[in-house]
Amino acid sequence: MGIKQNFKIIGSGSYYPKRIVTAEEIDRRVKRAPGWTESHLGVRTRHECVAPETMVTMGCHAIESAINDAGIGWGDVDYVIDCSTSKFRPIPCNAAHFQQSIGAAANGVPCIDLQSTCLGSILAIQFSNALFTTGAYRHILIVASESALQGVDWCDPKSAGLFGDGAAALVLRYSPSDHDLLFAHETFAEHLDLCKVDGGGHFRPSYQYRSDDDREYRFQMDGRNVFRVALRLLPPMVQKMKEAYLETNVDGINCLHVIPHQASPKAVELVRRIIDIPKDRYHVAVREIGNMVAASIPAMIDRVRKSNLLPEQAPLMLLGTSAGYSQAAIIFHS
C-alpha cells in the first residue's frame, strides 16, 4: 500500500464558468416545487459552462492559474495529464486540445488523457508519483475540466441537481521525500450499472442516436444503491489506510486533513462522520459548486491551499468513489 512520495504540489488553479445556476433555477428545470433542490439535495448554487465558454477555455484558465502559482513556464513542464470525464471530442485527447489552445509555448510537451470519472485526479497523482521515480520528469501538470451539466438527465432530479461545471489544475514537482505515500484503489464491477451513460460508445454508438432515446445518452445513476454500496465498502478501505498511516506517523491521525470527492452534501457529511474527522480538517464546498466530477478534488486542493487552510507539510488524504463501482484514497504530505 505504501511507497515513497516523490512529488510536491507547487501550483494549483481553478476556474468556474461565469454563469451561476441557483437552486431555484434547478427547481424549474427538474419541474419541482420551489425549494425542492436545496431541501432535498443541499445544493445552493453551481456554475454552468455555456457559449462562448467551453471545457477547453475553462481548462486553459485553470492551467494558466496553476502554472503562474507554481512560478514556472511551459519550458519547465514535462508532461500534461488530463483526467477529465467530459470529452471535448472523442479523438484527439483533451490534453492535446488544451495544448493547441495555449499555442506555441506548449508545443512538444507530451499530452495524455487518464479517465476514471470522479477518481481521475487521485489516479493522476498516483500515476505522476510513479513517473517521477524514473527520474525523467521535473514537472507534471494535471488538469480536469468538466461540463457535466451538458450530460445530465433533467428527468432525474436527484441526479441532475447535484452536478456543476468547472476546471482545476495542479503542478507537481519532482521532490523525493522521506514520507510514505499511501494509496488504495478497488473496483467492484458487479455494481457497474449503478452509474452509467449507455450511449456514445461501442455499446450504443453515437450514430444510432434518436431523439426518443435521448435519456440513454445522458448520465444515469441509481443514487440510493450507490450510497448503500459505498456505505458498505468504503469504510473498510479507509480504515486500512488510517492504520497504515499510523504505523509510520508518530503524530497520529490528529493532523490529517481530508478532501473528499464532492459527491453530494449529504454523502460527504456522512463519510466525515464515518471516518471520524473534525470539520476543520475536512474540506467541502459542494453546496456552492456542486459535483464537478474529476475537477472536484483539485478544485478543493486549490481552495485550501490559497485559503491557508492546509499547513505546510500537513498530511492530506484524498478520497472518493466513481462509476465502476470504484473507490480510491491517497495520503501524502502537502
What does this structure look like?
This protein is 32% helix and 23% strand. The protein is α+β, with helices and mostly antiparallel strands. The chain has two domains: 176 residues, 3-Layer(aba) Sandwich (Peroxisomal Thiolase, Chain A, domain 1); 153 residues, Thiolase/Chalcone synthase (Peroxisomal Thiolase, Chain A, domain 1), CATH 3.40.47.10. α7 packs parallel to α8. The longest helix is centred in the last third of the chain and has 26 residues. The relative contact order is 0.19.
Q: How many beta-strand elements?
A: 14
Question: What is the CATH topology of the largest domain?
Answer: Peroxisomal Thiolase, Chain A, domain 1
Q: Span from first to last CA?
A: 19 Å
Identify the quaternary structure here: single chain
Q: Order of strands in the sheet with the most strands?
A: 1-9-14-13-12
The overall average pLDDT, rounded, is 93
CATH architecture level-2 label of the largest domain: 3-Layer(aba) Sandwich
Radius of gyration: 19 Å
CATH class of the largest domain: Alpha Beta
Major sheet summary line: 5 strands, mixed
- Taken as a percent bin, the fraction of beta residues is 15-25%
DSSP helix fraction: 25-40%
Give the CATH superfamily of the largest domain: Thiolase/Chalcone synthase
Backbone structural class? alpha+beta
State the domain count: 2
Taken from the alpha-carbon principal axes, the silhouette is: globular
Question: How many H/I helices?
Answer: 10
Task: Return the string of H and E elements.
Answer: EEEHHEHEHEHEHEEEEHEHHHEE
